[in-house]
């Protein structure tokens, strides 16, 4: 089963280093954790890394040969400079082999939550010359099966933006559900492009993760007004362009393969809900798929704006 497009590019100032050596002295010694990178729009992106110390042979057994990726992460730990360490000399990092993964877990209330994490293999420091010509930005390119198209609602009010749920296909038939936001100024163009639920599509855009502090003035019937601050968080995968791809054959998968991937995800989510699998996972299936066992390709039902329902 082929993987679909799942490519991210992030260049940003290193805000925080969170890589650690774990299981020291054991065969399964590794480095894991994350780096936080800040882009020019003020977004801060947490990028996750993992590398075993020793390479594995063809049978999956650890050898005595140390992984080059592991030694590279050792360099990050020892040499890279973050804003937390030195605000005037922090490194600018460009990630490599970067992609989205699924992050599914139960919250404290016992509800199943499905989000995305960012995973990368490399973190390269930019030279002074490279800094001058490289924008600090976070972008994505994804393709997959469209499972839902709907208007964005906040507190029961339409924002004017659109929401597209996309099943990205990962390694070994893993489904990675991604929530994409179509900004209001592109909603009309999206509606006329021919996207439809059950069809496939490819999208590019920007990753946004900003926090701003706003001052709120609450008027009182008499006396002094109540003044307080609130933090506004904006986190989304904002689409800037895209194209419909047609049926499953455009992704080099069959409907039967997609149905099997959905079943695998549904099973994994059931395990998380029932407490038989407590780990976050990125090979689980979309429980909100409106098509049941298989998404059936449809004729595009939208002559204009699919969000206006």
Concise structural overview:
The protein has 309 residues and is mainly β. It has 4 helices and 14 strands.
Please tell me about this protein's structure.
The protein has helices at 68-79, 128-133, 187-193, 255-273, and strands at 6-22, 30-38, 44-52, 54-56, 62-66, 92-96, 99-106, 112-119, 122-125, 138-154, 157-169, 175-182, 200-218, 226-246. The chain is mainly β. The strands form two sheets. A five-stranded mixed β-barrel has the order 10-11-12-14-13. The longest helix is centred in the last third of the chain and has 19 residues, at 255-273. It is globular and about 70 Å long. The model is unreliable at 280-303 (pLDDT under 50).
The run of helices and strands is: EEEEEHEEEEHEEEHEEH
Oligomer: single chain
> Termini, distance in Å?
35 Å
| Major sheet description | 5 strands, mixed, barrel
Runs in which pLDDT lies below 50 for 5 or more consecutive residues are 280-303
Shape label = globular
How many β-strand stretches? 14
Topology overview:
Layout: E1 6-22, E2 30-38, E3 44-52, E4 54-56, E5 62-66, H1 68-79, E6 92-96, E7 99-106, E8 112-119, E9 122-125, H2 128-133, E10 138-154, E11 157-169, E12 175-182, H3 187-193, E13 200-218, E14 226-246, H4 255-273
Parallel strand pairs: 3-8, 12-14
Antiparallel strand pairs: 1-2, 1-6, 1-10, 2-3, 4-5, 6-9, 7-8, 10-11, 10-13, 11-12, 13-14
